Amino acid sequence: MALSSILGIDLGTAFSNASFIDATGNPVTARSSEGSNTTPSVVYFTENGDTTVGEVAKDLALVEPDRTAQLVKPLMGKDIPAITVDGVDKSPEEVSSYILRKVAQDAVQSSGMEIDGVVVTVPAHFGDVERAATKAAVEIAGLNLINLVQEPVAAAVYYGCARSEEDGVVMVYDLGGGTFDASVISITHGDDGTDIRVVCADGNHNLGGRLWDDQIVNYLSDAFVSQTGYDDEFDPYAQQALRNAAERAKMHLSSRDEDTVALNIAGLPARISLTRETFDQMTAHLLSQTIEITRSTLENAASKGYEVQKILLVGGSTRMPQVTEALKANFPDLPLEINDPDEAVSKGAALCALDIMAGKGAPGENGAASKDSVVHQLQLTGDATPLTIHYATTKSYGVQVLDVKSNRDMVCNLIQKNQQITSGDHTYRVERIFGTNVDNQQTVEVRVYENDEELDLIPIDRDPIKTATFALDGSKLPKNSPIEVAFCLSEEGLLSVTAVEPCSGRNLEFDVQVSNGLTAEEVERIKSDALTVDVQ
Description:
Layout: E1 6-10, E2 15-21, E3 27-29, E4 39-40, E5 43-45, E6 51-53, H1 55-60, E7 68-69, E8 83-85, E9 88-90, H2 92-111, E10 117-122, H3 128-140, E11 145-150, H4 151-158, E12 168-175, E13 180-190, E14 193-204, H5 209-228, H6 236-252, E15 258-265, E16 268-275, H7 276-282, H8 284-303, E17 310-314, H9 321-330, E18 336-338, H10 344-357, E19 375-378, E20 387-390, E21 396-403, E22 408-415, E23 428-435, E24 443-451, E25 457-459, E26 464-471, E27 482-489, E28 495-501, E29 506-512, H11 520-530
Parallel strand pairs: 1-10, 10-11, 12-17, 14-20, 17-18
Antiparallel strand pairs: 1-2, 2-3, 2-4, 5-6, 5-7, 8-9, 12-13, 13-14, 15-16, 19-20, 21-22, 21-24, 22-25, 23-27, 24-26, 27-28, 28-29
Helix pairs in contact: 2-3, 3-11, 4-10, 5-6
């Protein structure tokens, strides 16, 4: 019997799962209808307009790729379809909504609970665009979003960092099926409660266990051709067989030094041996990328005065022995902890959900827990002191400027990634004065950019989130006339921009909306259609 009526959901690139709090107050992962603790984040669109999500969809991914959507998470917030089926574009948000519905339905069946709401986790590197897309996916799924929680924070809560009486700083090394994140989190205890602070984070949207599978697929296909003399293209069924065999081999090599893969393609049998040593060698370039990101994140934390004391392993791909071996070799002074890496994030989200449900969260509308705030007041089960979570900025935000030294268009970042949001009203505000570019200038165009660079000036290599024009009513300003620009990032993650021409007092104020996200009208239209679709 479940204690909480709110689910914690880890919406993953390769696998997703949901957890709830049982009657004893412990987090439990809901089993899928197929009997697993995780569900492949794969959606198959049937010819009658319904969907199949999970294991069956994964088996169909290569056989019917035109009807199967997978690896959708990196596409969240991008203005491109995740898949086009029967001439109809399916957005990443819509596809993700079917995954959310599947794990929620299975959780109801598994736990016997009725769901009042969900807490959904997002990667630390997600910015406003991706967060807005995740919120839209939850709404399209017809679920009540209580909060978004960063994955490393959820993992740290599950690992018990907040319940320890000792202060500490931990690194969360999160290697999932499709993405990698490295985050440093500080936990401090005081008379007013416990603070969890995200110090800094970095990651790679496209680096995950799927790439390790690809290396095995290449190895098996080459070995098969060598053994059998097969000289034709591998059809979709053969590709699926290779993919399934690769995933099993990777899992077996987590507990064995060698695995034998039996294949039968086009009537040609083959037995292929793969040692862990060979597997580690051919994936070393992938693992080294995670080590370098981890190292740079640790150095970033150290520059801010934080010394990490241990590394928490999260994500199913951390079960590979090569991960722990590399971390021990590169960071010998940092102990490693691994506990339910596939489920730690959703279980941590469920613990957060319990406290939010109990009304112990930061006040929001009508006194309810604040939804998607930068600082959340939580109280863990059995702990009498409040827990406050402080998030850092996940992206940099700037305006397009002309660099007079190089005469190049650049982005000047007013807000930089990994800045702590510590003001009393839970906002981050920065002001900067710029000058007009030419004599007799009549308009100033404010172009706002989002990026991942922790630098003041960078070349323009990102699409603008929003472009707005500040009309100066025909005034002819001399060159270098001051224009005051202010950025304010609110606790809801909404960026407000103010531009003022101080001589006349004329000004422009606007909230930066996600330019390539779905509008409220589009979300409502997709939701209306999607909720008529059966999800199996």
